[in-house]
Amino acid sequence: MAKVYERIADELRQSIRAGELSPGDRLPAETKLAERYRRSVPTIREALRLLQAEGLIEKQHGRGNFVRRPRTLVLRTNSRHQWEKDRAREPLPQRKQTGATERDTGLELDDLVFYAAYREIKADQDLAEAFSVREGTAMVERTYRTRYRAESAPFNLVTSHLVRDMVADNPDLLDDANEPWPGGTQNQLYTVGIEIGHIEERVTARPPTAEEAEELDLPPGTAVVVLRKTSYDINDRVVDISDITLPGDRTELLFTTPLERW
Question: Any idea which fold 4-67 has?
Answer without folding.
Answer: Arc Repressor Mutant, subunit A (1.10.10)
